[in-house]
Amino acid sequence: MYEALEKCLNQADFSSTDLVQLRSQKRLMTTCTARNGVVEEFSNILLSGMSARAFVDAKAWGFSSTNRLDQESARSTLQAAVRSARAASRLKVKRIALAPLEALDTEVSTAVGKAPHGVPTEEIARIALDVCKGAREVGSRVADVKATYIGIEDHKHFLSSEGMRIRQTITRILLLVDVIAKSGGLICPATENYGHAGGLELFDKNPPYSLGKAVAQKAVKLLALKAPPSGQFHVVVHPTLCATLLHEAVGHPLEADLAMSGGGFGNERGKLVSSRLVTIYDDGHVDSGLGQLAYDDEGVKSGPTVLIEEGVLKSFMHDRTSAALADAPPTGNAHAWDYSVEPLIRQTNIGIEAGTYSFDEMIEGVNEGLLLDGTFGGQANSNADFTFGFQSATWLKHGRRDQELRGANVAGNAIEVFKTIDAVGREVVLRPGACGKYQFAIQGRVVPAIRCRVMVGGTGGS
Amino acid sequence: MTLDRNWGQLSDVVHKAMTRLGKKDSKLAEAFLACSQTTEIAVRNSEIIAQNRTEDSGVGFRVAAAGNRVGFACTNELTEKAILEAGERALAIAQATAAFPDFTLPSATRPASVKHLFTSEIPDMTIEQAVDVARWAVDAATNVDRRVTAKDGRVVFVDGRRGVINTLGVDLEERETRAALTLGCVAEQQSELTGSCYASTFSRGADLKPEEIGRKAGQMAVDMLGPKSLKSFQGPVIFGPEAVSFQICDVLIDAVKAENVASGRSAWTGKLGESVVSECLSVSDNAMLDGAFASRGFDDEGCSSQNTCLLSKGQLESFLHHATTAKALGQRNTGNASRFSGGFDMAHLIIGEGYRTKPEVYPSNLVIQPGTKTTEALVSELPAGILIESLAGFAQRGSGVISAQLSRAFFVRDGEIQHPIKGSMISGTGFEWLKHVSGVSKEVTPFQNVIVPSLRVENVKVVGI
User: Fold this and answer.
1) Fewest CB atoms less than 10 Å from the CB: which of A84, A104, A290, A385?
2) Is the CB of residue B46 less than 8 Å away from at least one CB of chain A?
3) pTM metric for this prediction
4) ipTM
């Protein structure tokens, strides 16, 4: 695979291109889904392919990919990329002066305790089945339990006409748990995901049985609770939900391609955009973080990059093109989900630095409001408007926990909401995350609890 | 040419692998193979920023060993060795895993005759022509008003083939083309920036009407300038086709998927024959509509396409099935096995679609039958209410709870649109809304998997400032 790319690069005529990048990838994936104690699916997925990216006339990129790995396919894929670049170049006026990268030849791998490759089918199936066992033991109101194990091993090669030769092996493990509790006509879902960059040692400290039990207990508990109210509230956001808030509400608007398109944080560099209590960074080197990546898919070394420091906007997340346009250094945030798609500006492991408050102190500061916990996904618009779901809530009254409540959604504008943050927790946790910006990605989030004001769209009375 | 070459090579070896599996200790075996060539143009900030041409082909094997133990393996390596090994791996997994008692595959039937799934214009499309389509859409949008930016957009042309072979006699293949254009526009004046407003078209042919889509998206963004906050409100709401196609259809699809019925996740479990939604609503799943985006001759495990009535005047008539759920519930297979399921499901998104995954139950073209009045007439009948064209947010699976931000909505008084709305949310249960539908528009809009009208719903709660 690597040889075909090397030959393709050696034989290519670069007289009509400014830069050529070739990537190849072999992905080995094992997945197992158990539902209510039955293994519904056990898959072994082997995907490989290559892509070519060409930059021409100092103006336009072109991209092409194929799952064929012979030398002729590599050559025709590169030709298609050059032709694509030319097709767009004729329409472009603005010139882009990409900062050159120094030649590099390196090899990096995720630290793996217990490699998933070669583990017997029965042992992998046991992980998903144990989740079901733990959940079903919670009782008859647990109507449905679905557990999905996913192990991914990526072997990636990156070569460029600038002399880059990077070989990366990345191993990631995920366990996704989804439980439905039912009572009469009432249905309450609860979910939780584990995930890290590393091997099966993930489950040494996090037994799947306990995870299944905890998620099922949560779903069953929700059956007896009322829906939360609606309106603007002073809220304590648990780290499980803060991870989504950070990614959707602040992370996306700090991606340079979105930021530079007007509105949101676009013109705010150097300005106070958030509470002074907030420092936000993105770091591709967080230990075990799902977004771990030493070099991005343009060959740029990943962060850490300080994005917001004590409330002041310092930097966006960049690829080489946006960095050139903004006259800033690239930050190693150009990621492609796999060989078949072009790199795009993505978060790696985004984080909020720990504050000084204990969780109890944060609650004590709320006279009347809500504690929001768990996540049900979300989305953000380029003007920094966001919406996302929480799984459960607790009514807070005079600094104490009062009634427990079910989940709903929150919405707001990130710039307005982050200015209202009046406390940041001192304990941070590493959370798994996913993102669907134009293409899929799995990422990490390093988050404390925060306290702010936000709009809650509950169906209950206030 | 590449597509033909890849298909021929893949199909030959897959047939060989299936013959081998038939002779081994496999009770049932199936191969799903697919080849595609995709041309895609991406637009950001009124500029064409990426133009890609990608090819993909591969095969996924599902094999059941004795005792109904099932394994799946796939590969996109097209060598004979890699393909034969994938079949062997599926069998080895099946032999090592636990029983899945309800698993089955469909027997051979004649595929439905569906017209206009393929046009030769798309395989002949050059990258330059595709770039022009994107450029025309952007120009049309920005010509609407100087305050408009074509924030993001996508033009995609796909030339594909898919095939299903199983040990019960299914051996089918189909060639199809698809084209889609989506353009999201924003408008900006002084310090005010609207959210993205999307117009889209989905087609089997190459003509994506880029000028029309561009003008529409540009005008939608301009119409959102000058929004006002809203006080909390409870009353009639008209959901436009885009809002119906996402959050409201998600609730409906979640409830009619037989996988969810079998596992007790569906709110409509055990309610066949009962009245579950407003009698204004009739809904079908029609995979045989000529030229529709999700039409096909057979589903992704080889069952012939059908037109299935799901809801008739509010009464639940059928669920959506593939072979395994039909067996589990003792109902008719509706031919809804899909390897291209929608929605944001993390496991699906990681694994991928097509040959990379086993099929799940999903609609083909889910059609909400049109009513008798225009959307304009429905709006003109509102004394005070809200027209919601687009929502940002999700329907919670199972419960049908929807709380979402109004991303494109207008306040209506005395039958006239007054102003766009900012900073508000909608909050309720999709199933309750479906019970309170009081009006259905006669115009319908096609999206990828749904063809839907506007719906008037009574007593909806909107959370304002």
Assistant:
1) A104
2) no
3) 0.93
4) 0.91
B201 Cβ under 8 Å from any chain A Cβ: no
Q: How many CB atoms lie within 10 A of CB B418?
A: 12
Q: What's phi and psi for B319, nearest 5 deg?
A: -105, 170
- Residue A110 touches partner B, C-beta closer than 8 Å: no
**A140 touches B: beta carbon within 8 Å:** no
Q: Which residue of B has its CA nearest to A145?
A: B263
Determine if the peptide bond prior to A120 is cis (ω within 30°): no
CB B336 within 8 A of CB B363: yes
Going by pLDDT thresholds of 50, 70 and 90, the confidence category of residue A107 is: very high
Residue position matching structure tokens 């895993």:
B97
> Which residues does chain A have within 8 Å of residue B231's beta carbon, measured at their own beta carbons?
none
Tell the residue number behind the tokens 């679905």, with chain if given: A146
Residue by residue, DSSP assigns A21-76 as EEEEEEEEEEEEEEETTEEEEEEEEEEEEEEEEEEETTTEEEEEEES--SHHHHHH
How much is the pLDDT for A263? 66
* Structure-block tokens of residue A460: 């209950």
From B345, B348, B306, select the one nearest A43 (Cα to Cα): B348
Of B328, B232, B100, B26, the C-alpha closest to A32 is B100
Q: Percentage of residues in chain A with pLDDT exceeding 70?
A: 99
Helix, strand, coil shares of chain A as percentages rounded to 5?
Answer: 25, 40, 35
* Inter-chain residue contact A67 with B57, CB threshold 8 Å: yes
Residues 6+ apart with CB under 8 A from B364: B285, B286, B287, B294, B295, B296, B299, B305, B335, B336, B338, B449
| Residue B424 CA, distance from chain mean position | 27
Beta bridge partners of A34: A39, A147
Q: Which helix (H) or strand (E) holds B81?
A: helix B80-96
Number of residues written out for chain B = 465
Residue A461's pLDDT is what? 62
